[in-house]
Write a structure and sequence with these properties.
Blueprint: H1 2-20, H2 26-38, H3 41-65, H4 72-110, H5 113-119, H6 124-163, H7 167-177, H8 180-206, H9 212-242
Helix pairs in contact: 1-6, 1-8, 2-6, 3-4, 3-6, 4-6, 4-7, 4-8, 4-9, 6-8, 8-9
Length: 243
């Protein structure tokens, strides 16, 4: 994993160099943004909504028994914005779009399309990696922001239906508990997670050699590695900002 991380850093440097040279195509970034985040929007929102509903079911009655039902909204919002929304959205996008990135680039590698790009004197790493990294870094935070709103609303609906908590008390608790710092850090996490998904999955695909069987194995490895690196990045960010 250390050697693979070194390859990721090398590819990130080449992609940044390619982007700063002005060769990245805006149309390619838009196409990748649609493939990575827009196409994953519905499944991400469904996962976050259901997660918020489950949390609300678990905590609402316990809070009601202790007379602390006024804090249901705040507790759900904090958990949702600090961890659930950025983490679950990144996992959903990694499972759907990340594996697609790896499979696409791996297929290009084993069918010699990458070699064809090299004959045109075009850097294949910059050409393939740059639009995907830029698109993921920009659009994953947007999906996370929408998911946070949907998650908080999901908690509101469930807590209102289960324990009859008035929406005004729920929203007031959310405003009291949340801080702008939590929102900024969640967007930072989304930025880092999105960049990692594109970088790790593209690198894994680019390192593929062989045939169709190797493409499948590479896709599986990309899903596992992107998840491991995201969890490690989440751990580091939490230490930096919350310890």
């Amino acid at each position: 994993m250390i050697a693979f991380l070194g390859k990721c850093m090398q590819n990130l440097f080449l992609s940044a160099k390619y982007t700063l040279s002005g060769r990245s195509r805006f149309s390619a970034v838009i196409a990748q943004a649609a493939a990575i985040s827009y196409d994953s929007l519905i499944i991400s929102l469904v996962i976050v909504f259901v997660s918020a509903a489950v949390i609300a079911i678990q905590v609402s009655k316990q809070f009601l028994m202790t007379g602390a039902e006024a804090y249901v909204g705040g507790s759900i919002a904090v958990v949702m914005i600090r961890e659930i929304a950025p983490g679950f959205v990144a996992l959903a996008i990694g499972a759907r779009a990340g594996t697609a990135i790896s499979a696409e680039i791996a297929n290009m590698k084993v069918t010699s399309q990458v070699d064809a790009i090299k004959t045109l004197k075009v850097d294949p790493v910059g050409y393939y990696f740059s639009p995907r990294i830029i698109a993921a870094a920009i659009t994953v935070p947007m999906v996370v922001l929408i998911a946070e709103v949907i998650g908080i609303l999901g908690g509101l609906i469930v807590s209102n239906q289960t324990i009859g908590l008035h929406p005004a008390r729920y929203i007031n608790s959310v405003w009291l508990w949340l801080s702008t710092k939590d929102i900024y850090i969640s967007l930072l996490k989304a930025f880092v997670f999105g960049s990692l998904i594109a970088l790790v999955c593209a690198t894994q695909g680019y390192e593929t050699s062989g045939g169709a069987k190797d493409v499948g194995e590479s896709t599986t490895k990309a899903a596992v590695l992107s998840t491991v690196y995201m969890l490690f990045a989440d751990f580091v960010i939490n230490i930096i900002f919350y310890l």
